[in-house]
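Instructor's aside before we start: the two examples that follow are unrelated to each other. I chose them only because their records fit on one page, so don't look for a connection. First example below.
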Amino acid sequence: MMIYEEIVDEIMKRIEDGSLKPGNKLPSIRALSQDFACSKNTAIKAYIELEKRHIIYSVPQSGYYVVEGYRRREQTEETDATIDFLSAGPDRHAMPYLDFQHCINQAIERYKEEMFTYSDIQGLQSLRFQLARHLQDLQVFTVPERIYVVSGSQQALHLLVSLPFPNGKQNICLEQPTHAGFIESIRHYGKESYGIEVGREGIDLKRLEQLFKHHDIKLFYMVSRFHNPTGYSHTNESRKRIVELAQQYDVYIIEDDYMGDLDSNPKNDPMFAYDPSGRVIYVKSFSKVMLPGLRLGLAVIPDELREAFLRAKFAADVHTPMLTQGALEIYLQSGMFNAHIDRMRKLYSRKATLLQRAFQDWLPAEASYSGSLSGFYSTIELPVPIKAKQMAQYLENQHVLVDQAERMFLPDFAKDNVVRLSISQVEEDLIEKGIQMIAKGITELINRRIEVRFASQSSAQ
């Protein structure tokens, strides 16, 4: 056995017997190398291996810690017996709990007086300054005055659907399928909507132009990269052409860049970069890359909508909670966010690669799938006549959970044979096993139908 493997086994043993508890700090690299009479590189290799297994995590300038809530797989039969492609939150084992707890404590101290008063409706000014700096890394160049802090990006989307726009138009265009929450907002306000299919090659730009030209489109809602639920991303050429069409036909674009931080390609531009004047309204969330419980997001609002958006925000919740705003400000300012995102990109990229490989190796030819590089979402279109509900029920009995995507379609685009997979919370060594179970389910459900059809034909004879 290699020395680093001995270290891994020893750390595991200490965790299992309780001498190392969740949240405990592990020995430093130097101390570990001295204890095992090995090089520092060997000690680092052991800790990297434990990180890959989501048993420990690192905090920059601090050290390594045991993941909160870690227990042996044998001890968590109900949880670990289930492969969860349904839950769409970030990887629990990779979340910056201790870092953010530190930021929360600092925020309490820094803003203890302000917590007894109502905050700026638009958001904490010092946070908006940090957000403007952060957005520059995403090629979104704007000023703090145009940034509005919201209680999750869904709040911004919901408010924007309700507002009258300067173009005086009424209807909404959106990708199909799309984020179910946005469809609910459209239904809530009774807005007329027009869908346009999104696929491996993007969207039909000629069809989009016809919609803009003839259907009184107020705004076009789209996810330019790591689309929900397919995981697809538009090319720069497509993004630029969509902006040109919006300019030509006086249509606003809501660019939902909810996972833009995970894009490791610096050449990928947001749509905002092609028209920062206000035609493109940029919306971003921190839920998928950090802690969903924060309920923090932002919207870059054009000057002509700022007053109306501010009134709508005030009516909705007066202001976004001060404490979480202050903690996020400190988290961004300290550099912790950048270090966290670097880890997340590597983690989700590995998961995305494993998923695509499993799709290629195991799914039958009758099923089609979307290619996702985000490490979050992908879809499987089941062969007709298998229904998503039928597949979900079958898989649940096999302890595999998937999401039915039917609610993500407008009625005119409805598909009841699509399931969405989120791999963000699935352990890497279970991804292939889960896809094998899905492939087995497709084959078995097809065979069952053939048997039923054969039996009915025989009885008729």
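Example two begins here.
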Amino acid sequence: MHHFTFPQRLAIFRPGPAGQLVIGLASALALALAVTGSGRLTAQVEGERGIAPLATTTDIQVGGIEVNTTGKTAEEAREAGWNEAQRKAWEQIKGAKLSDAQIDALVSAVVIEREQIGPHRYVARLGVVFDRAKAGGLIAAGEGGVERSRSAPLLVMPILESGGVGQLFEVRGLWQRAWANFQTGASPIDYVRPVGAGGESLLLTAGQANRRSRLWWRGILDQFNASDVLIPIARLERQWPGGPVKGTFTARYGPDNTYLDSFTLTAPDERGVPKMLNQALVRIDQIYAGALYQGVLRPDATLVTDQSAFYAALQALQAAAAQGAPIDDGVASVPVPGVTPSATPSVAVKISTYTVQFASPDAGAVDTALASVRSSAGVQGAATSSIAIGGTSVMRVTSGGSLEELAAALRARGWQVTVGNNALSIRR
């Protein structure tokens, strides 16, 4: 009688820890599919969610300007109306004192919201769009000489609390829609507005605002190319069905959910809630802008880690190792009698010079830019080579790192950097 026996290798096989983990996950997935079905497992990222933000540019748009002008002809009256609208829009954004011809050179478009043209009269409501590249430096000086700089890219997480439940992108909410429709061109805050569809609804939740892990926040901000996070919260309280709706709005920011300011508004009924949210958004934008001007709204140093000094030290160590030089570990060497220490070859750090362009609306902006660049990691010195007050000035920067390392160091200081051919362009 023959007996079948397993091979010895097969008989003694036992899965290791990794194999046990894979088998356990596969078993759990098979059980979940058997109990709930595949449809429910994918329901968390499906459905009607996500609102695409308006495709706004960085241009400065001012709308709702009423004009009423006259002229010898209809065309002359219309031209006078457009010039008056451009002048009023320029005064509204507190631009420098310029002539009508100079203001016209800064305008990229005129938006006709409503107009009535007569033989000798022009009545209209217009919007004016200024090119930020041309006009940005001329509106940098605001009230009291405070610098009106543009912030670093900031991720927006608009949280809506309604009925005791906090939500962000789980469903299409009115607060998310208000932020998606917001015209950000005239704001000094560089808002990064997620769509909220697909995996973004799982990554960005209302509970994320209470996390403190810097590693987790860095992973999220890197995906959206942002430097920090803004958390505007809207809490709606309904007095009775069909009655007034009270809204409490709070502006918070940063990975620690830091409080800035709050206020309350009231809508007469549900139909007035969208208008109330739009009004609240404008006030929250003003709160963030005020915090930026006061120097409060700065990128968290624990989120934007400057690695340029580390890379420079690493290159020096690699160069020393390639030349066979001993590496200084910080421990003092003890002289040995009768032994002559060998000469240690010095490691030369390569110094490079780069050209950096920056907006200089006034002399204070030049001093501020120089001080910020000089205090960046790896920078040996910085001096202006061309100054254009009211335009774009140029400085020459000597640095011990590469152009990319210099750009990373300036981004860590809150600058928005554009890399060119051995040159950089920076702006706030």
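Confidence is low (pLDDT under 50) at residues 6-13, 140-148, 329-348.
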